Amino acid sequence: MDKFQEFIGSSSFDSRLAPYDIIGSIAHVKMLVHSGIISGAEGKKIVNGLESILKDIKKGNKISVAEDIHYSVEKELIKRIGSVGGKMHTARSRNDQVALDLRLYLKDEAAGIIELIENVQISILNQAQANIKFVMPGYTHLQPAQPVLFSHYLLSYAWMFERDKSRINNCQERVNILPLGSAALAGTSFPIDRKYTAKLLGFKEVSENSIDAVSDRDFAIEFISVLSIIAVHLSRLAEELVIFSSVEFDFWELSDKFTSGSSIMPQKKNPDSAEIIRGKTGRIFGDLFAILTIMKGLPLSYNRDMQEDKPPLFDAVDTTRINLEIMAEIISTLKIKSEQMKKSNEKGFLGATEIADYLAKCGVPFRQAHEIVKQMVLFCQTKGKTLKDLSIEEYKSFSKYFNIGIYDKILPKKIINEKKSYGGTSRDSVSLQIEKLKKLVKK
C-alpha cells in the first residue's frame, strides 16, 4: 500500500469492526435473498464464505489487506468464493455499512461497560457491608463538617455509577436504530426490506431519513459524553483514594498491588493506580472534544472526515474499560483504618450542627442558635478545647437551655443514629441503601 493509500485508509484502526462488518453483511445478504434480489444459492454461498472469514478472524488469522475493513472483508470473500462475493454489496454503500458497524459495536460495548460498572458497585457494596459500623468525618469544602458512616460516604459513588448505567441505557435508544438500507445517501431502487434486516440484527427501529442516517454520529458523540461523565466519577473517587490514604488522613491503605515506590525516597508508597485513573480522565475528555471538532462543520451528507470518528471512540471505550477494571480491584482490596477515622472525628467540631439543632428544638430561632454555637467554637479555639471538653457551666454561659444531656448529643455515633431521614447516614438508612443497590445491581 503506497503512502497516499495508507493516508486515506482506515485499516490501521478499524480492524476491530471486522466481526460487526461480517455480522451486518450476513444479515444484509439474507435480506437480499428474502427480497428476491439475489438467489438463495448465491446467498447461501456468500453467507458460508462470510462465516468462514468470521471464524478465522476469531482465531486470530489474518485476512486480505485493503483500504478499510469493509474492502478487506469483501476482497477476502471474493478470494474464497469467487465473483459472486461481489453481490454482497448490492443495495448498500460503505456509508451506511460503517454506520451500521459502529452501532453494532456500541451495542456490545454498552453491555460490557455496564457489567464493569456493576463490578465497581459490587466492590463498593462489599466494603460498605463489611465496614458499616465505622464513622468518619464528612467534609464540605474539604473542611470537617459532620460525622457520617464510612459506608454512607462510599455508597454515594455507587449511586453515581447507577446514574451512569442509566445514561448508557438511555443512549442505547439512539444507538438502536438501523441505518443500513440508506445506501450512499439517497436510499436504493432495489426492493429491500429494512425491517427484516432490523429484526435479524436486533434493532428496534429503522432510520427515517437516508441522508441523516449516513451522516449521523450523534450516537457516538453521546456515548463518549456518557463515558466522560463516568470518567468524572472515577476521577473524583480516585482523588479521594489519594487524599485519604495520605499520612495526614490515613483513613485507608491501598493494596501494594496498586501502589509503587519512589526512585529516590525509600519510605514512599505512592497511589499511582488512582492517580493514573485521574489522569486518564483528560484523555477521555480529549476524545469527546476530538469527535465534536470532527463533526462541527461538516455539510451533508457523508464526508471522509468522519473516518476519524473511530480513534477517539475506540480510545474512550478502551480507556473507560481499563479504568473501571482497575477501580473495582482497588476498592475490593482497600484496607480501612477505623481507628484513624475515629481520631479524626474528634477534630473540627463535628458536633456543632447538632448543638445548633438542639437549641432550635428548645425554641431558639435557628439563626440565633447558629450564632451561639459559632461563638462557642471560637471560644474553644482560643482555649485549645473541643466541644466535649467544655464544662456544663461553660455551656450554660452561652445558653440557659443547655443541660448535662448535651454531651450525649455530640457523640459521633449518637449523631449518626439521629440522621434517620430517608437517604441519611443513620445505620438503618444506610442498610436500606445497600439492600436497594443490591437489587439494582442484580438486575
Tell me about this structure.
The chain has 443 residues and is mainly alpha-helical. The protein has a two-stranded antiparallel sheet with strand order 1-2. Strands 3-4 form a two-stranded parallel sheet. Strands 5-6 form a two-stranded antiparallel ribbon. The relative contact order is 0.11. Helix 2 crosses helix 5. It has helices at residues 3-8, 18-34, 40-58, 69-81, 94-130, 150-175, 194-201, 210-215, 218-244, 272-295, 310-332, 338-344, 352-361, 366-383, 392-398, 406-409, 412-418, 427-442, and strands at 135-140, 143-149, 177-178, 205-206, 252-253, 335-336. 62% of the residues lie in helices and 5% in strands. It has 18 helices and six strands. The longest helix is centred in the first third of the chain and has 37 residues, at 94-130. The protein is elongated.
Which short descriptors sum up this protein?
single chain; 443 residues; mainly alpha; two-stranded antiparallel sheet; two-stranded parallel sheet; 18 helices; 6 strands; elongated
